[in-house]
Structures are given as C-alpha cells and as structure tokens.
Amino acid sequence: MVILILPAKTGKQRHIAIHLDHNLCKRCGICVAFCPQGVFVTGDDGYPVVAATEKCTGCQLCFYRCPDFAVEVEVDK
Amino acid sequence: MASYRDYLAWERLPHLWCAGCGHGVILKALTLALAALEVPPDKVVVASGIGCSGRIGDYVTTHRFQGTHGRTLAFATGIHLARPEVKVICVMGDGDAAAIGGNHLIHAARRNVDLTAIVPNNLNYGMTGGQFSPLTPPASISSTSRQGKAEPAFDICHLAVVAGASYVARTTVYHVTEMQKFLQEAILKKGFSLLEVLTPCPTYYGRYNALGEAAQMLEWLNRSVIPLARYRQMSGDEARYWWRGRLVDREAPDFLSRLKGAG
After folding, report:
1. What are the structural domains of chain B?
2. Does A24 touch chain B (CB under 8 A)?
3. Domain hosting residue A72, numbered range
4. Is the ipTM of this complex over 0.95?
5. Percentage of chain B modeled with pLDDT above 70
6. What is the CATH number of the domain that holds A34?
7. Among B166, B182, B164, residue whose Cα is nearest residue B228
8. Residue from B4, B12, B13 whose CB has the most chain A CBs within 10 Å, to mutate
C-alpha cells in the first residue's frame, strides 16, 4: 500500500492511496499495460509494483480493469 | 450509499478464473452496477449455467442459483414468476446460451420474460479445454477445429432482437464504463434484456489463435470492435469487425403482465 499527497495541477491537494493485494493478484499484467500514466511496473516476481506514485491521477482504470479485485485506488477530493 | 464491496463474497476470493480472464471484470461491473442502482443483495438472484462463467454465483452475496447446462433461463423464468419483485440476472457463457441453451434463449426472448441475460462471450468453451462454440468466429483455431473452424458464427444479439427481446446490447471487457452503463440499463429494463460481453480467454482462445496474453487480447478486442453506427455505414468488410452498442431498446408487454392480463 502506498499513500501519497499530490499537489494536483489545479493547486488542490489530493490524497491518493493505491492498494495492491498480492493474495488476489494473478500477475496478468493488465494494470501495468493499461495505466495511462505508467504508474505500475512489473516486479522481478511478476507482481505489479507502484513505481511512479506521483503520476497517478486517480482515474481508477486499474481498478475497473483488474479481473481479480486486487487493485483499489482511494482518492480524497 | 451501497458499495460494490457489499455484493462480493470476499471470503471466497481469489476466484477460480485464470489470470487475465475477463469474467472477473464482468463480475466487478455487475457488482458496481447493482451498487449504483442500490438494489439490496436480498432482492437479486444471480442465476448461472455451466462453464467458467457459471461460477460467478460463488462470488456474490446475493441469492444465487446454478442450473444444469443451458437451462438457466428456464429455471430463472420460474424464479421470476414466483418472486416478481426480485431481479433475476442470468449469466450464461457463449456455449451455454447459444448452443446447449439456444432454444431457451429464443423462447425467453419471444415471451419477453422480465429477466436480464448476460452472455460473457469468450469465444470458446474454456472450462472443458477450448472447443469452439456457435459464437466462435469462422477460421478460428480451437481444440475441435485444429485447421480452423469451418462453420459461420451467428450473431446472438440479432437473434434475440428478432425473437422479441426488449433490450439488446453488446460491449467488451475493454469498454468497462460502457459495460456498467449497459448492465444498469439492462437490469432496469422491463422485459427480456440481453447483454453480450466479449471477453478474453488467454488460456485457450488466445493461445490457440496467437493473440497473446491478457493485455494483448484486450487490445485485440478493442481493435476488432467498432461502434454500431460506424458498423452500419460500412460496406464490404463488416465481417472483420464486431459492432458494439445498443442494438434495441423498446417497450413491449412482458410475460408476467400478459399472463395476468390473460387470466
């Protein structure tokens, strides 16, 4: 789990937390392939790793696309 | 406010579907749609058939029912007539809905029974080893068509329309927000509604047809599907594409209303 505070482009501060659950993840690579900002990379063990937290815009595409309920993105506006 | 979490049986996860299988995305869209509509879990029955998608009932907190192969709609009709206040959502794979249960499908559509039928179409029978189904595109390699499928495929959406369904749409697992929107419309629709969702099967269809892993298969789906309006303007190379969109959304008396009217 990664928590960060983003100085968003609008000037507002947003809290974004990306939760990855290794017990549910099947290493299909969908989140890594489809994140528009390239937030994830594939780790040595095949699991996704949150590599560029500051790029996350909170679009939730990884959440919607994950077939295994392994990704959740919390965005406090 | 309801959350998709309320509709998922978390203690049964991880689910049995393969890595990259789209059925999990459909399950998530269904839970999101139910949460958005705020239908309480005890007012929903998820009825499924046999095959990979038939296991969807294991992972929901709503009522669930798993019928014999292809007979989901027949059982679901009974559930609906006995408990009309409960939303009955049927999940049937392409083989279950179009081959084994093809007759039930056309007659449920003809009677316009107030059911929601979701057809996750992964283009083959995944659970039994990748045999072709009536919805497998021609020339596809499967474990029962090693030289390429010789038969044409039929369009289950057009079939449901001519049979009399009130609502028919098609989308893909790639188009996640559209899928949730169509699911909500289909659940709310009075009368028979059918939503076909094209979904990747990387284990069999993808491997046999060299379409790559899950992510590549999703890209392939996105490239192979075009909006219905554009599809209708095409002349000549329609066969290379699937259309996606709302094919029909019309008002017609449903089976139970007719039954009450007749009595």
Report:
1. 4-262 (3.40.50.970)
2. yes
3. 2-76
4. no
5. 99
6. 3.30.70.20
7. B182
8. B13
